[in-house]
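call fold(seq) -> tokens
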Amino acid sequence: MAEGWVDERDKAILDTIYYCENCNMVLEPGDTDIERHRRDLPNHKLRKVLIVRCGHCGNIVTDSYAQYSPQLNRFWCKNCLSDKTNHREFYGDPRDDDLEI
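ret:
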């Protein structure tokens, strides 16, 4: 893997937010409700959500609607992965190689 792959991956991560599944509420880092949830509402499911840019189409999505490729060192959104041609490119499917026998 090339040097600086962590920096390249981190460039695709635009922001980090928190989401409470019980309250159906988005919380930004530094919000006082995050501490309140951790302190007073420990049974609530508070999860960290990454806002990422798709390395193929450029759309901005959450990490739950994207997948990371270590081979490409990029996040791709599920829309791009749903196309069969893109799917092969993303995973580096060896069946796509033109082998001469």
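The radius of gyration is 18 Å.
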